[in-house]
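Sample pair:
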Amino acid sequence: MKYSVLLLAMGMASTQSGTAIAKDPLSGGSRLQTYANPVNLPYRYQPQKRAYREAADPTLIRFHGLYWLFASHSKGYWYSRDLLNWTFVQPTGFDVDKYAPTVFEMDGKLYLATSENVKKIWVAEDPIKGTWREAGDISGYGDPCLFLDDDGRLYVYEGLSATNPLRVVELDRKTFLPIRESLIKEAQSKETRGWEVTGDNNQRVTKPTYTEGSWMTKYKGRYYLQYAAPGTEYKTYADGVLVSDNPMGPFVYQAYSPFSFKPTGFIAGAGHGSTVHASGPDWWHVSTMSIARRHPYERRIGLFPAGFNSRGEIFADTYLGDYPHYVNGTRALTGWMLLSRGKPVTASSSLEGMLPERAVDEEVRTWWSARTGDAGEWLQIDLEAVKRVEALQINFADQDSEGKGISTDAYRYVVEGSADGKRWHSLVAANRTGRDAPHDYQVLKKADRVRYIKIRNLHSPDNGKFSLSDLRVFGQSDDPLPGTTSPISAVRDTSDPRRAMIRWNPSDNAQFYIVRIGVTPDLLSQNYQVYDGRTELNVGSLTKGIGYFYAVDAVNERGITKGTVRPIEGS
């Protein structure tokens, strides 16, 4: 994404020095037309003994003017007009407890198949009614993507392995029997591509890498085969891309891969996704985000603005990808910054090892839990000064929940604010709660200036304890913007060019930094957030033989100051 576009996306205006100044955070659109990842869905409990929720491997398509979202083990699917409000359909006629559903439209109907080598394909004329029937037998595939080309020919892209390559199979569109196939070996090369190496920092070089999660997008006559690596449980789970002029290949690896990558932040991961056209130049990329605390498949759904640049390169904008974004118009960041990380916090009670500080550490993999799920349990944050608050994301942790499958219970709570800790008023009233929403995103009707935020439990669902992986508070402080960063060094590792060490000097007023990396100065598609005063980053996501550029942005509760783009030495 071009530098000027990035500035607009942040609600900023550029200056000649390359810094940025904060603008009115509401200048990009309506405050109510915003969202924050993970997508606010009623994620389903899985049947294992230890309760955890999951939705992953998403397929997002347009059909009859609606968005349709299908995800692994979700006992159904959702549809929406606006990507904000989702209606669930609990269907009949197909196996809803399989991984990686793939859906495509043909002759005015939706066809669906799944992973796990299921040898059936199903069809529905009216998916809102939820009645599906068998349309035919198929060979059975792993992580399939069914793709109907403009000429009416049908293909399936599939593969889920640490050893075998992806492949493409042309199918008869009436019988779904194979016609011809081809292996796609270009999608596996962890020896040269650091982002395909496993680990939360691509550091586990001897561990197997899983290549999976195919998705095909056709754009201006070219075929963009997207695929996921290195593994769904890692923060570095990402999507790369191969391009061809023919749906059967041969395909060419794109050096700017991974194009969908989010290894840091509150919730990380941006792999095994799908890409859908919205309107005009706008596309969306929906992908899998990782928690992997109670189970490797404890996952969520992320939604990212996407598109193609003037060179035909696909991108997904994951920059601060779990901060509030507008869903329409520019689809930019709102400019509402995180105010709650690391702030003083108190609570009514705590389980051992699950202290209140875990509710403000900006990490979905840790959480605070009260000792009970009783009404009256509470948690309070001191923002340390009166600040402008715009929205909250209440991320429930379901400690000791007994939930299974589709929960019919709901979270009920209230949130109050105060400027002085004595006089309190409502920020989120009880009548705005009462949903099965483990990542409940609440936009205030209007901005409020408060110092203290207090959430009180009214009811914890499924016999769980009142617990929060984070109570995230978004808005702006009155602090000055951070200063511009200055570099120390950025050097590739000569023993392993997949890695590089980047160092910079501290910036005045910065609370953390974002390191952007890419193969051209205007396509810095890899973003790393660096916290706790650290001014260096060891990355492992680079590709051997490819040159890279980087920039270091400084961030605080007022906004963002963009860094100057520079080359990485040894590239």
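The chain has a mean pLDDT of 95.
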